[in-house]
Amino acid sequence: MFLSQAFRHQNELWKYAIGFIIIMVAYFIGQLPLTAAVLLKVFLEDAPMPTTNDEVFGFFTPNLTFFLMLLIFVFALAALYLVVKKLHKQPFLEVTTARKKVDWNRIFFSFSLWGAFTVITTVVAYYLNPGDYIVNFKLGPFLILSVIAIVLIPIQTSFEEYLFRGYLMQGFGMMARNKWVPLVLTSVIFGSMHLLNPEVEKMGYIILVYYIGTGFLLGILTLMDEGMELSLGFHAANNLFGALLVTADWTVFKTDSILRDIAEPTAGFDVLLPVCIVYPILLIIFSKKYNWTGWKEKLTGKLYPELKTENNEIAN
């Protein structure tokens, strides 16, 4: 039902193509404040122009860089909202959930569950291998980081969820007339989007198993639950607690977090553990709580345009 909501409107391939281009243009416009800040510092301080991502990320204080990076997603999410409302003339609720209103309890439950797991595993990892970390905590910078993260990370993660699990998943579903094609495509594209992250260069392409696997988890949550609430909560908790708790010199976001990971990164069991063990357990927890049934139909079934019933209600 969530994917088939795209059939309620005169959505066509050209609208999704133009809409995606508009969103990407807004994404690049969102990078202009960062570019302007770099040029201003070069001009005022006669600093050398950064030529690599690492040099750009180290050009300002971590908090300023973090703010400018996340500001990009404010522009992108605003553009996505306007594309859905104005180009597709579709209620934004319909790319969020099949329910009559957003279920905030689902968002908070998913956020709390994954947030608690992240905190616990971070604490355990620190006490098991204290030599892999140094305490990076500085009250002033951490408080600034907290404000930036709490305000902007939900915008960043919401943009990615609305783009992949909402907008594109519904678009691919409408074109393919089934559910497995949008699940596979959005998961692979979501994972591949991280190709330019420094983690890939440091750990190798095996890390894409984690990124693509996470895309599949978020897609499965959306399809099984007929809405994005669970994926919105999970993604926000993953990025927010990750930014506040641990940073490393080889990650895409270098923050004034509590800990800094100084161990040499390796991609092996650490990559497979979440995808092969933790994520399935998470799916079982959600399935028990929300009484999911019909897995095969919800993940691979066909999609049909919705029809009007005699009472003028929407039916599948």
TrEMBL record:
Signal peptide: none annotated. The keyword Nucleus does not apply. Keywords: Hydrolase, Membrane, Metalloprotease, Protease, Transmembrane, Transmembrane helix. The keyword GTP-binding does not apply. Pfam families: Rce1-like. PANTHER family: MEMBRANE-ASSOCIATED PROTEASE-RELATED, PROTEASE. This is CPBP family intramembrane metalloprotease domain-containing protein. It comes from Flavobacterium kingsejongi. The lineage of its organism: Bacteria, Pseudomonadati, Bacteroidota, Flavobacteriia, Flavobacteriales.
